[in-house]
Amino acid sequence: MSRKTLGFIFAALGLAAAEYLWLARLLRGDLWSWTVYSFLLAAHLFYAYNLIFHISLRPRWVQAAYLGWYVALFLLFAAVATGPPETRWVFGGIHRLLLFGLFLLLTSAFFHMPIAFGFLIVVLVSYLLFPFFAEATLALLVLFYLVMLAELKWARETSNYLVLACFVLGFLLLLVVLFPLVHMGTSRSPQDLRTNLLGPDAAAVETRRAMWTSLQTATITTLVVLALGVPLGYFLVRSDFRGRGVLDALVDLPIVVPPPVVGLALVQLLGEKQAFGVYLKDHFGIVLANDWKGIVLAQVFVSSPFLIRSAMAAFHGIDPKLENVSRTLGASPLHTLFRVTLPLAAQGIFMGCILTWGRAFGEFGSVSFIAQYPETMPVRIYKQFVESGESGPGIALAILMIFASVVVFAGLHLIASRTLWRGVPTIWSHIGGPSGRPVQTAR
């Protein structure tokens, strides 16, 4: 009999005795408790078998990590097993032991696959250390882990860890931005979201109407700003006159003015009892207060700087010599604009459209002043929160709004990557060009 086989036999006997002593106070005469004991013993035997016959052939640091992980896992579950049973993230005495045996099996198998082992650690950290927001923690840690794997591989190949360090620091900012949204998104079930949006009751009907109003007005706002803001951006880039800096600074004015101030200014000008508002209604039949046109006007005010600035940045990146060459070849200024300048600036203008649409879709402060009805989604969410608090449908509506924004953004990126610019990295692909890393080409 080989030395390893003999060692495994003694280890099995020792583990069986140790586990019996450990579980003596939990074991009863029923089949269920002895099934738990058998499963836990099998998990330990598998862990010991892997150590004696496989891990012993690996470097010493791997053996030490294998044993150290068992000690850490045992201490963690031993600490959890003594917790109060009323704690909602505690499984109960025997159930915790089943979970401990399951993790022993998984870690023993995954120890041959470091990447999978890392995912297991992410799951443990999420559900044992952060039980009250485990789902949100798990989603963000998986994102962090996947990016770290890719960046670590690149950093080792180039001996340059600066980019990796920047990601770690930047991820702290991402946590501040993403964690509240992800936590809120995992706090409601899909069935709850479906009921609030597609249910037959009057509240669901109002929610669908508010969602459609937000989508419609945000799209109209983007088209209006696109038609008027791109020419303004081109003018500010290509012109040079005294006082141009003042006009350039005024473009950013809607960003620094608080949205409630914007709404109050619009109400004072266009309200139903204001002279100009009465004039528009009596002579032209135009009503802006409590109407979708007033919502669009408020959204245009607050979102226009995003598209204008993006267009200006795109036009700044275009060498004027290209336009001059087009003119010398006989093209008119308008033909040059549409055939040379705008195609080259398409990416920046499109990104400005996305920012403008998102800003308009989420606008609340100014819209709530000029139009309580028809409701947009932000206004409806606020009203539901005031009426019902945190336990009401306002949270579900907020999640629906986030989901709609993500779907629209992803769809626009997909359309643009297939039409406006091909070969440019988007959320759907990464070819490495702009990052300075070598582009992978198919052979």
Kindly list the characteristics that best describe this protein:
single chain, 443 residues, mainly alpha, MetI-like fold, 2 domains, 20 helices, 75% helix, disordered C terminus
What order do the helices and strands come in, and which of them pair?
Elements: H1 3-23, H2 31-53, H3 60-81, H4 93-110, H5 114-129, H6 134-158, H7 162-185, H8 190-198, H9 202-238, H10 244-250, H11 253-256, H12 259-270, H13 275-284, H14 292-316, H15 320-328, H16 333-344, H17 346-361, H18 365-370, H19 377-388, H20 394-418
Helix pairs in contact: 1-2, 2-4, 3-4, 4-5, 5-6, 6-7, 8-9, 8-20, 9-14, 9-17, 14-17, 15-16, 17-20, 19-20
General description of the model:
The chain is mainly alpha-helical and 443 residues long. It has two domains: 3-188, no CATH class; 192-418, MetI-like (MetI-like fold), CATH 1.10.3720.10. Helix content is 75%, strand content 0%. The protein has 20 helices and no strands. Helix 3 runs antiparallel to helix 4 and helix 4 runs antiparallel to helix 5 (114-129). The longest helix has 37 residues, at 202-238. The model is unreliable at 85-92, 423-434 and 438-443 (pLDDT under 50).
Number of strand elements? 0
Spatial shape: elongated
The CATH class assignment of the largest domain is: Mainly Alpha
Bin the helical content.
over 70%
CATH-assigned homologous superfamily of the largest domain? MetI-like
User: End-to-end distance, in Å?
Assistant: 54 Å
What's the main sheet like?
A: none
Radius of gyration: 31 Å
Structural class category? mainly alpha
SSE pattern: HHHHHHHHHHHHHHHHHHHH
Query: What CATH architecture of the largest domain would you give?
Result: Orthogonal Bundle
Show unreliable segments: 85-92, 423-434, 438-443
Assembly type: single chain
CATH level 3 topology of the largest domain: MetI-like fold
